[in-house]
Design goal:
globular, disordered N terminus, 2 domains, Arc Repressor Mutant, subunit A, mainly alpha, 196 residues, Rna Polymerase Sigma Factor, Chain: A
């Protein structure tokens, strides 16, 4: 299992290279972080197709703002997770009314079997993609169970329900600094588990 410090250093180095416009470093950064960030976005949006759209926006933002990353302010993965969460929350706020008018055809199982038309999910890896998502979800659940209850609750409310630190403090009836510490320490404990 990789050392969490090494992993953060690797991501920090990749971000520094991305800031210089290095495409190979960007691909490495993407490959190293996409599963974790996509899991956050899917959980918030509850729509895998929409989450993939937002994921593109996340990595465009990372490419454009990598030079603003500062290791003094946040660990690399924390910075990336914050961008992902913020983009997902922006999507929820800005397009909630627009998405009500999107028409998605529903095909019954019987029609689907007889139509001979491939399912869009099958074109993207279908069963394998769903299996990998299920494995990732199970792994995340297992990693979350290793956290202290307060850390687990704070992270769940922050990343799954989209609460800010201030909202967390009010909801959990704890000082703001305490809640921030729970989230930060919880993320530090999650990282090696999710990356391992």
């Amino acid at each position: 299992m990789p050392d969490p410090g090494e992993l953060q250093g690797d991501l920090g180095n990749l971000l520094a290279r991305v800031a210089l416009g290095n495409h190979a470093a960007f691909k490495q950064l993407y490959d190293s972080t996409v599963r974790c960030l996509l899991a956050i976005i899917v959980r918030l949006l509850r729509d895998p197709a929409w989450a993939e759209e937002v994921m593109q926006e996340v990595y465009v933002a990372v490419w454009n703002s990598a030079s603003s990353y500062s290791s003094v302010k946040a660990q690399p993965m924390t910075w990336l997770m914050t961008i992902a969460r913020n983009k997902a929350m922006d999507a929820l706020r800005s397009t909630a009314s627009d998405r009500e008018y999107i028409v998605r055809p529903r095909i019954s199982d019987e029609e689907d079997e007889n139509s001979g038309t491939p399912d869009a999910a099958d074109e993207r890896g279908g069963l394998l993609a769903r299996l990998l998502q299920a494995i990732d979800a199970e792994r995340l659940r297992g990693c979350l169970q290793r956290l202290e209850p307060a850390q687990r609750q704070a992270i769940a409310l922050a990343f799954y329900d989209g609460l800010t630190h201030s909202e967390l403090a009010a909801h959990m009836r704890q000082p703001l600094g305490t809640v921030k510490a729970w989230v930060r320490r919880g993320l530090e404990r999650l990282r090696p588990c999710l990356q391992g």
